[in-house]
Specification:
The chain has about 170 residues and is mainly alpha-helical. The protein has one domain (about 20-155). The protein has 5 helices and 2 strands, in the order E-E-H-H-H-H-H. The radius of gyration is 20 Å and the shape is elongated.
């Protein structure tokens, strides 16, 4: 948040965001949006392969078909929303929250694969994805941190006002 000095010499918060903050928000939106669009397109391109990869996680096996059917569309929608919503839209914050939730679920899924010693392909970026390993956990954790940071940076900001002013 930028600050300015008012007529009485008091330091006041400016209502507009700093350029650095705005650039960080846009960088996060573009990066996360591009990752989600890329992943969604690759998964949607070969649904049968993706369904097998989801089943390979051995995590809530009865939900694997539903996850395989809905996840690519969810990723495409979230990626698109992160890229096209206006910066001040409350829906941008909702998209950031949903993105963080998706990456949190991904983190749980890949972590349980590594902990249980399951040998399966990630499926994160389509048929050419490698096996789930510690690098997968670190990558997903990085995406989760980025999405939480975006969520925090898009929080409504209330400027402090002087209570003695009318």
């Amino acid at each position: 948040m930028t600050t300015h000095i008012d007529d009485a010499g008091r330091r006041m918060a400016s209502p507009r965001p700093s350029i650095g903050r705005g650039m960080l928000v846009w960088t996060l939106r573009i990066a996360l949006g591009a990752v989600l669009l890329y992943a969604g397109v690759l998964k949607a391109a070969d649904p049968a392969v993706f369904a097998r990869e989801v089943a390979g996680y051995q995590f809530f096996p009865t939900l694997a078909p539903l996850i395989a059917a809905t996840l690519p569309t969810t990723e495409l929608l979230l990626g698109l929303l992160l890229l096209i919503l206006p910066s001040r839209s409350p829906w941008l914050r909702a998209a950031a929250l949903a993105t963080a939730a998706v990456f949190f679920m991904f983190l749980i899924a890949v972590t349980q694969v590594v902990v249980r010693g399951i040998d399966t392909r990630c499926g994160c970026f389509g048929a050419d994805s490698g096996v789930v390993d510690m690098l997968s956990i670190l990558r997903v954790a990085g995406f989760l941190v980025a999405s939480v940071l975006l969520l925090l940076l898009t929080a409504p900001r209330h400027s402090k006002t002087n209570p003695s002013s009318p």
